[in-house]
Amino acid sequence: MTQKLIYEGKAKKIFETSNPNELMMEYKDSLTAFNALKKGEFSGKGQLNCQISTHLFKLLSKNKIPHHWIRTENKNQMVVVKTKIIPLEVVVRNIIAGSLAKKLGIEEGRALKKPLVELYYKDDALGDPFVSDDQAFEFGWAQPDQLQQMKKLALTINEILTPSFAEVGLKVVDFKLEFGLDPSGVLVLADEISPDCMRLWDMQTNEKMDKDRFRRDLGNIEGAYKQVLERIERIQV
Q1: Does the CA dihedral 84-158-227-171 come out positive or negative?
Q2: First and final C-alpha spacing in the chain
Q3: pLDDT band for position 2 (50/70/90)?
Q4: 58: phi then psi, degrees, rounded to nearest 5
Q5: Shortest CA distance to 228 belongs to which of 205, 206, 197, 201?
Q6: Cys-Cys crosslink for 36: which of 15, 32, 111, 199, Cβ 3.0 to 4.6 Å?
Q7: Are the beta carbons of 230 and 53 closer than 8 angstroms?
Q8: Mean pLDDT of 123-136
Q9: CB–CB of 11/30 below 8 Å?
């Protein structure tokens, strides 16, 4: 029976399932950057991100982090809890890179004294602008207690991912998370955790192992994603 497509984004498709509280999330092979102004793809990219996200959701389950993942059905599809997405991206930064380096005129690679947590309003047309807690509350995107919980969860996830990735020779430079409310109103981690939404550098060489290879035309994007999967599969879950 054909599943009903209810949403298609830059990197994923969302389908209804027979369970009203569950959705099927399918990872696409497409690559986008700069809010979809730059586009590309490679065969098997969706499978790689699905497998990477699956392994990391299992790691977070082991550490009692609430999330939407239920099970992975096949190589590029997973069943997730139906959530009402909060229209904010929560970014955690450990090392100065990307837009922060550009905005402040600081060379990439400087470690921060402590992780920074930033909020961005999810709107491609506006370029996902940086917003404050007060703005997020004023415009009804999230309640103060939700913002506090999202930030706390983001930092806890950072405390889990950073040493785990270090074990397999990867620096967690920064990453983006999305959260939503499940049918019971519980705040849970949603979307994905993959090189599409993380900056990962090799600990020895600082080689970029993430979507920056696409953003900056560094080449061998597929090889980097494959290596990330091979490495994180060595992390105990």
Answers
A1: positive
A2: 34
A3: low
A4: -65, -40
A5: 201
A6: 32
A7: no
A8: 95
A9: yes
Structure tokens at 172: 């967690």
Q: Is the pLDDT of residue 110 over 70?
A: yes
Of residues 123, 151, 149, 147, the one with CA closest to residue 135: 147
**pLDDT at position 145, please?**
97
Condensed to tens digits (0 to 9), the pLDDT of residues 85-108 reads 999 999 999 999 999 999 999 999
Residue with tokens 């035309």: 217
Averaged pLDDT of the chain: 96
Which two three-digit tokens encode residue 223? 């090889």
* Contact indicator for 154, 89 with CB cutoff of 8 Å: no
Closest CA to 158 of 129, 198, 99: 198
Reduce the DSSP state of residue 170 to 3 states and report it. strand
DSSP code, position 206: -
- HSE (side-chain half, CA atoms, 13 Å) at 161: 29
Tokens (6 digits) for 178? 């999305």
- Give one DSSP letter per residue of 43-67, joined into a string: TTHHHHHHHHHHHHHHHHHHTT--B
Do β-strands 170-181 and 187-190 pair in parallel, antiparallel, or remain unpaired? Answer: antiparallel
Rounded Cα–Cα distance for residues 148 and 166 (Å):
27
